[in-house]
């Protein structure tokens, strides 16, 4: 009986010595099982000759025909252009590198067979540098009676070599040496084929396999593997959560009077949703284990107040709270709020950002270390080594998608030094559709603030072509003359930050020329933090009427008197980001407007996206649409990168599987916990690393 394939070293295979093993290791292939899971990225069909008349652009195909002309074209790049016909159509072969002999060989009347990718050339169908043979030579083009798998490669590894290794691995595959970890009761309801069959099929699809289906990743064999892989990720997150909950954290058993005193100072009362989420938090704080809670709430739903209430409960119990935001503008806003709310209650709020230097910094550090400051607000500067807390019991992280997992890890370590884990409250204004959230955030408990404070008037969104820019400027002028304030947002996605700032500067100059009576301010990422803060403060105080900005204002800016926003080139931004931007207006009593000033002409997708913005202001609906149009990677931001690297699965393509996967993961967890470690090590060899996050 042979050992399981996951214990067989690749060096047991013919043709694999140490050097080859090293190359394979670069592809994370160490065992024979790893080779089996190294699946083709695509397939070539060399099993039949395709009539030229049936080709489509992008196809890779074998074609056969007669050469009807061959000449050297000068053009931008000199090339040899050879025309061939097969009775159903014409196709051109193009060679940028060629010899005189080659030109001679391809003379009119010769019968040839070629394999290559069909491109759209100036002459219609073209193949660049196809593999080709003259047919009367009687040679083959590597024709095969099976679809030819194309594997991911690394330096020094060729397709024939990896194919030959995968062949050997398949020869070793028996029904017994590759463990099937999914029990029948999970496989059957979801119609998942057996693992060994799925693997065998994907390395060697039968000739009748539907190439289109394979290309789309929609074959049951592919589903089978994506399913298991997604489940592995899910199980790893669930495991992470369970593990984190085994840690000890300080217990806060009552909400205390401080929260009540805080509320009694405010001119409004919390919404039902804010209260409900605060109760969720109190429940976690009382558990004796670290809270890991994500609060999702649309822009303007009042997450800050919820954070403040949680802060009050923890401070009252005698501990410290840290509030962290991804940008200085946002952190400063929290500083203002928390100082305003807590100083009258006799508490000290410390401030820790990159710009706090010298003596001021020393003194803040001392207050944090001694516990004289019960609350610390800051940017990622809070993660730094030099900051030592006295008794940090709650870390609040705003806009979590901008912080990486590593930063949360750093925070956890600060907790370790003091002997107990801080509770974590993570707040995000980027709503994520439910299914995706359940998968991506399986390591966190989630609460949703699904209600806006009363009295908000929805923002009226208008989609306007840049050909009407003049009218828009006129409108800004009128609004400002009536005492309103406005934002003008310049976007340049995929361009360097320098270019973005330049664009904002140019726009500010142009607008100032056209609106000479208005006081115009400019903020962008290249200004010094102090300059930025000064301009924001002047805008907030009403000294500036129009603020020209890059997307740096996306988060955190709260100026209730600003009721008009113009966004240039909105078609370049994701919907979630547009929604964030738009959330900067509609915060006061006045009716607000958002003008999406797009660059004409707009494609179908662009139209669909901008009309979504016009039709709804519900962040969750917008997120659903964004998921549909752009895929989950964009929505998940940094969480996606690193944490979510899939071998087979594709979140966008396989999103329909997520519900089932989740259900299956819970089932496996309850009934077959012993199968979890082998599934994790099959799919996430590094999972131990994640478990410690
Ligand atoms: P976000 O969820 O986007 O962070 P904020 O916490 O900044 O929202 O709150 C947006 C605005 O709503 C702030 O001006 C805040 O003072 C106000 N606010 C918060 N909660 C309430 C409430 N229950 N009633 C009225 N206004 C509220
Ligand atoms: Mg906020």
Q: What does this 3D model show about the protein?
A:
A hairpin with a 5-residue loop joins strand 2 (60-73) and strand 3. The chain is of the alpha/beta class. The chain is built from 25 helices and 22 strands. 39% of the residues lie in helices and 17% in strands. The chain folds into four domains: 5-43 and 150-218, no CATH class; 48-143, OB fold (Dihydrolipoamide Acetyltransferase, E2P) (Beta Barrel); 256-449, Rossmann fold (3-Layer(aba) Sandwich), CATH 3.40.50; 459-616, Rossmann fold, CATH 3.40.50. Helix 8 crosses helix 24 (676-683) and helix 10 packs parallel to helix 11. Strands 6-7-4-3-2-5-8 form a seven-stranded mixed β-sheet, with no helix packed on it. The structure holds adenosine-5'-diphosphate and magnesium ion. One of its GO terms (biological process) is DNA recombination. Residues 482-628 form the Helicase C-terminal domain. Keywords: ATP-binding, DNA damage, DNA recombination, DNA repair, DNA-binding, Helicase, Hydrolase, Isomerase, Nucleotide-binding. Residues 284-449 form the Helicase ATP-binding domain. One of its GO terms (molecular function) is 3'-5' DNA helicase activity.
Q: What is the average of the pLDDT values? A: 86
Q: Name the poorly predicted regions.
A: 638-643, 689-693
**Total individual domains:** 4
- Can you tell me the CATH architecture of the largest domain? 3-Layer(aba) Sandwich
Large-scale geometry = globular
Q: What percent of residues adopt helix (DSSP H or I)?
A: 25-40%
CATH superfamily of the largest domain: P-loop containing nucleotide triphosphate hydrolases
How many angstroms separate the termini? 40 Å
Q: Quick one: CATH class of the largest domain?
A: Alpha Beta
Question: Count of helices?
Answer: 25
Number of strands: 22
Using only C-alpha atoms, the radius of gyration works out to: 31 Å
Strand content: 15-25%
Main beta sheet: 7 strands, mixed
Structural class: alpha/beta
List ligands, each type once.
Answer: adenosine-5'-diphosphate, magnesium ion
What would the CATH topology of the largest domain be?
A: Rossmann fold
Trace the largest sheet across and list its strands.
6-7-4-3-2-5-8
